[in-house]
């Protein structure tokens, strides 16, 4: 089954919606092109009407005929058969930004949650931007302080929607100076690879590999190579010492093997720039 | 001679001047305590009177009896004997913030430049904050874009004052999201270690080792371990791909060997926190 899983399109926020729309076009292409059936999930935002209308405009502009929004403001709505049928018919599901905890607390364990996982298993493409990106993994960053060195307690984590294991995602990465908080997150469990995704930049995950698209870069923070960490001895707000972290900066066209924890340089598809 | 060189106190900007003043007190201690003779060099700033008066207040509050400022707004002034005599009598010289190019263009090659190097060789402590930190090394970052992924041309470099070799310094590091620009700098010559120094944080360099003091951390970016870089093929503003960069995050109390390019964990002097 897992060989037929749908791709994940994990976007670092602020993706272009007015110009070339590289990332959103790629999502549409993966979901079937103009024949795609797209559901825009506005669960994360408190402005579902505005945000939903904006994405409907964009996807229609790209040429998708069948776009609908799905909002949930109470868990009951996520247990309705009609909601599940919309997911079952979709070829692509797009999660907007907002607050990642709204997604997990409103959808987690509902019929829609199951329908999303079933859909993904049979090939439906799942995309998410900003909060919709963070929630993709099994453990997610809920919130944290930017523009700081790594410190204990500056990053608040919670279970995510579990569409992918073994990574922790941060978004708006370079733009909001989030190296410190991503390091604080992965230091807690260095098996997790940290993916810091810049704005208007995305990773397309297929099985255990991803490729980068968009304007910025993806910073892969691999704390598996740590030679020293003082995390065990510290209290809240104490400064972390981390020695021997491995860092890869991957712009558009570069690929990475999550299983081997290294870039796939032999399979470079583009110049690395668009 | 080089065994008797003075320490360098390289500060990431915005050091505490009102509270414990950990960093400025340590500079004073290294320069001889209350018997120190300190020259505050305001060459970098266009507000030498205000900035100079501020530091005179601070150093007097710490208990230093002999503090004077030295400003240069034209190169002629840096060739006067009186200027050199002030440096010759000092036990510590402190460079304020401002613009690092003012320091190198106003002092480079003058009698004061020679006097500073001679003084450093015979044990005088040199300190600098912000612009005064950047200029310490042989190659310095003049300016660059923050909050971005590494790109070609986003960082402008120039010769520094050459008090230390083999490193490139960036300041206000976590606070201004400068990982991208420091990576862009060291990628050009991966032999250089990148030192990203946070605000109210400093490295104390003695010979080929340094120790961290202050509130934040120092990020050591070692591109010597690069397994791949696309730098050769790119044009201005193209995104850099960098694979296999090594990263160390070192808060207060941690030491690093510049010669061995690794932390000295066996010589940890404090808990790593203050």
Automatic annotation (TrEMBL), chains A, B:
Family indicated by similarity: Belongs to the peptidase S51 family.
GO biological process: proteolysis
Gene responsible for this protein: cphB
One example GO MF annotation: peptidyl-dipeptidase activity
EC number of this enzyme: 3.4.15.6
Role according to the record: Exopeptidase that catalyzes the hydrolytic cleavage of multi-L-arginyl-poly-L-aspartic acid (cyanophycin; a water-insoluble reserve polymer) into aspartate-arginine dipeptides.
Pfam families the UniProt entry points to: Peptidase_S51
Enzyme class: hydrolase
Keyword Hydrolase belongs to the record: yes
Nucleotide-binding found in the keyword field: no
Keywords: Carboxypeptidase, Hydrolase, Protease, Serine protease
The organism's place on the tree of life at top rank: Bacteria
SUPFAM superfamilies: Class I glutamine amidotransferase-like
Active site, per annotation: 130, 172, 199
Catalytic activity: [L-4-(L-arginin-2-N-yl)aspartate](n) + H2O = [L-4-(L-arginin-2-N-yl)aspartate](n-1) + L-4-(L-arginin-2-N-yl)aspartate
Protein name per the record: Cyanophycinase
